[in-house]
Amino acid sequence: MLDAVTAQLDPPLGQALRSFDRMRRRRNSAEYPRPETPEITSDDVMQDMEKAEQFIALAAKVLDQMSPY
Amino acid sequence: MRELPPLLLPLLRSNAVGELLAWLYLHPENEYSTTDLARRTGASQPTVSREADRFAAAGLTKERRHGNLRLIRADTDTIVAKPLTDLLAVTFGPAAVLPPLLQPIPGIEEAYIYGSWAARHANRPGPIPRDVDVLVVGSADEDELYDAAREAERILGREVNISRISSASWATDLEDPFVTSLRSKPLHPLIQNRSTT
Questions:
Q1: Going from the N-terminus, what domains does chain B have, and what CATH number goes with each?
Q2: Using CB atoms, which residue from A21, A38, A47 is nearest to B163?
Q3: Residue B126 in contact with residue A1, Cβ under 8 Å?
Q4: Each residue's pLDDT tens digit, A44-64
């Protein structure tokens, strides 16, 4: 799904979703924490909040214009 | 004292042989001086020269002279080149592939491999490592680290996880179970004491 959306946006907006997959994996690992990974800090969250807000803004912008196929 | 055979690939004589071959075969486009290889692998200059003699005698490497420098590269035009490259990628590969991927990323003060790969590299027995765990200390951008991890996975053929912690947590956080656990186990340095200012 991510690949399909990125392909539709790229160019010029594909890079806008660059962090999405990383955040998705991070969320998964937060649900099943392993002792070998560091805890998520508030700084990590604050930095990614900005990027998450950009995803939402992008979605709001393109949703009306993007056909299913 | 005679060095034990490496547990990452006990058919080699030493970690130094594995790391030298990994640098040469996983960067076949590059040629390296013996000084350069010593710096990258942490092996002594005499060890590098001696092993380089053996590689050349076995037809594994090509060499040329540039002034006083002896420049060495992998000979990829042999029947063993492909399987040897593949074998090195899944054994000593992380030591040679990760540093050049991490070096250009700003904000990395230190970087280490930890977990099962680092344990096996330190000759602690156990099963073949399933993945490669990397710790980055500093303020590097998470997305750049993520891209480097995916590129490393492509070359190394196994999962690469890069975790970032701040230099303050690494230096002082003795309460953090992650930090205390890491400090008590083998760490293989990739980048050390780099000032980011």
A1: 15-91 (1.10.10.10), 95-191 (3.30.460.10)
A2: A38
A3: no
A4: 888 889 888 888 888 888 777
